[in-house]
Amino acid sequence: MYSEKVMDHFSNPRNVGEIDAPSGVGEVGNPVCGDIMKIFLKIEDNRIVDAKFKTFGCGAAIASSSMATELIRGKTLEEAWEVSNKAVAEALEGLPPVKMHCSVLAEEAIHKAINDYRVQQGLEPWEEKNHHTHGHEEESCGV
Known about the structure:
The protein has one domain: Alpha-Beta Complex (Sufe protein. Chain: A). It is 38% helix and 17% strand. It is built from 5 helices and 3 strands. A 3-stranded antiparallel β-sheet has the order 1-2-3.
């Protein structure tokens, strides 16, 4: 059901934890399945120098968080903003259709963390280019 990459990021997640005095924090959740994802960013000179996460959820949510932080580390804010849920899922070598919402949460958490930083800097938050249809009602986070 899950790719080896998903299982690896679930069993050995990268970048778990919090950043002391983070530059930006993004927290998102799925009320139906109970997944809660929090991404912490350390930003210097418009570049993400560190990214960590804390996720309460299923294996796919943990793997998505882990991969998302790997994908955005070292990127500029603009580059990190462009990391889509599809990019996260592809980097994990695929997610089952009922688990794609986990990669959507990762994308949303990145966006919230970047906008949290922008607002703290006195800048306007960036607008979402494409609003996702989550279909939370149809998803289940079964084991």
